[in-house]
Design goal:
Elements lengths: L4 H17 L7 H13 L4 H15 L4 H13 L3 H14 L4 H11 L4 H14 L4 H13 L3 H14 L4 H13 L3 H11 L7 H13 L3 H14 L4 H13 L3 H14 L4 H13 L3 E5 L2 E5 L1 H25 L8 E6 L2 H9 L9 E3 L3 E5 L11 H18 L5 H15 L9 H8 L9 H6 L4 H22 L1 H12 L4 H9 L2 H18 L17 H10 L4 H13 L3 H13 L10 H11 L3 H14 L4 H13 L3 H12 L6 H14 L2 H12 L6 H14 L3 H14 L4 H12 L21 H6 L17
Parallel strand pairs: 2-3, 3-5
Antiparallel strand pairs: 1-2, 4-5
Helix pairs in contact: 2-3, 2-4, 3-4, 4-5, 4-6, 5-6, 6-7, 8-9, 8-10, 9-10, 10-11, 10-12, 12-13, 12-14, 13-14, 14-15, 15-16, 17-19, 19-20, 20-23, 21-26, 23-24, 24-25, 27-28, 28-29, 29-30, 30-31, 31-32, 32-33, 33-34, 34-35, 35-36, 36-37, 36-38, 37-38
Length: about 775
Amino acid sequence: QNDLVDRAGQERARILQLLQSSPSRYASRDNLVAAGRYFAERGEDARQILQLFYDRVREADPTHLESYIATAELALDKGDFKVAAQTLDAAERVDAGDPRTAYLLARAWAPSDSERASAALERALKLNPNFVPALLLKAENEIDSERYKAAEVTIGRIFEVNAKQAEAFALLAVIAHLRGDYDEETKQRNKALATWSKNPNVDHLIGRKLSQKYRFQEGSEYQRKALTFDPKFTAASFQLAQDLLRLGHDDVGWELARSVAEEDEYNVVAHNLLTLYDRLKDFSVLEADNIFVRMDPREASIYGDDVVQLLGEAREVLCEKYDVQPSKPIVVEIFPEQKDFAIRTFGLPGGAGFLGVCFGRVITANSPASQGPRPSNWRSVLWHEFCHVVTLEKTKNRMPRWLSEGISVYEERQRDPSWGESITPQYREMLLADDLTPVSDLSAAFLSPPSPIHLQFAYFESSLVVEFLIQKHGIDALKQILVDLGDGLPINDALTGNVGSLEKLDSQFAAYAKKVASDFGSAADWSKQGLPEKPSTEELTEWVDQHPDNYWGLRALAAALIRGGQVDNAITHLEKLRELGTVTGDQGGPLEMLAQAYRKTENPEKEREILERIVSLTSDALPALGRLIDMAIETDDWESVHRYSEKALSINPLVPSGHLSMGQAAEKLGRHADAVRALSALLQMDPFDPAGINFRLAQAHAKLDQRDKAKHHVLAALDEAPRYRDAHRLLLELVEGQEPTESDKPLADKTPAEDKSPKEADSEQQTPQQQTPQPKEAVK
């Protein structure tokens, strides 16, 4: 720390000589922990360090606090947050009054539980308000939430303890960079290096914080600086690998990650990444217009073309709207397993609330296969993430999270009103209550939300801000804000220069948000005052009689009546909610209850009306779409079957039902290209009747005058079912160049005498002694 770099190297070598020459002299508990820390700094095997030093001390003395702390520090350095948390819980039982355990717990919980992490950090500073590591972490959190002035105050407290604290100066350099004051950034970095000119931690910290702000290019440059000071500084090497992977420099990024994993076998994040890399090598790669999509091969064969088509549309629409032309390839990776998505995105399992993440030119997303029985609309997710590509490109990744998310959610709704976040009764309450965050502080709403619903509300509120800015000042003002951000202007200055003062913006937006909330269900009574807790149906009925327009009472009473079998009475109250304009497409909400009620009372017209309303309001109502498809098939409404099937496949293309109905509708409507798409997907799903699917595919290709493909599929049908007569007829017509005849219609249209699947027909073949030899020319 006094810039005596050569002397420090000599002392490191001397420590090793002492430990090797007289190990018994340094076998005390404190010396063993110190030796373990020394070998950890040298990059020695972590398991050996645990076994030979820290575990040995704890076995001899379970109350030796320093061995627990050293173990937790080692686990955190290797990304093993679970081991760190478990060790620190044990340390707290030894001594709960040491601020180090609370501080390390804050770090251990940070990736998975922000609420517990914040509580632990607060406790550490309560135990010791001058504990520098905790103050540094507090300043980092304040930078993450864009509270730069608060971070500067916290850093000032650090300087009261240590006026030359290098990491504190490094954080001031980060703040200067984010404000676009690059001269000040250089000045603060120089101060950070003043007492140790080759301290790799300084540039590593600056780069890491910039990368957390999606400034991956600048972050990677700082990691390279750190490595010039210490080429063996593993933390910088691995951060550089992650930066390169997020910039789309896969070859170099994966190779660097592999070298880190080989050098440090206990690095959990590196190990996870390399395990994932082995799986990624088997992914299919689809390419169109400089967009590269990596998908599981089976999923790629089912809906990969649809993904490419949607991304192409997003590029055309959004790039034109925001005057952006990406100059480098865009990579989209879609993972069928959520843990793989999390490892690729965050380095560790977790992140269950994320559907997709965009780093700039790299998008990672969960496929419908990873999301359970009711997945989110994958089209909506990819449109949202591609919008991030556009806005991050325009701003050179220099934009606050709230604005980036707000534009993406807003553009979802522009593409399809059922996409994105929309007003709900709960959001209405939050807009009118203290949950509304001022525009100037919106990024903090994403950093540590009190609950998952508050995080979702942050997305919705941010989109409302964008909607307000466009309505009030126009799209050109929004685009100029993005240009200013790209030029390095801080967000508050960019807003002030284009739409006026922040105080005025906060005030005007608050009024706008309250109007949006008030307009939703304006005729309804939204008060909960006096509503009985856990009431009986009779008590609810009496209360609703006295409050006939109350949303909460009507909803609760309708649910109670349905549970009690009084469906007709429930319909009356649910229809009242519709009249009051309070219904949304939320899962389990009044509209879903009403649709189920009309189904129970056998009123298909009303049921269909309600189901159509649901799918117009939400993008992931798969049960409603399934029911609409069944009802449309019953009435031979093939246009509706086609439309609903398309929507269902936008939610989950990995189950056969949507493709079955789409194929059937396309055949009925003569849309042979759509039939090919649906039937080709079905063929990848291990169908019960592959011969029948191949035959229908052959028919569709023949209608499109794609005779080679038609021959391929008709021969595949005959390979499955050699006595499939319609397939023989179609093959002969294809060979002879005739147009397919009416006899070659789908099996579902044949007369009862002909209506046998190829599997059934084959099962009726004669015994081998009775079989008539097949002419070879007929099946060539």
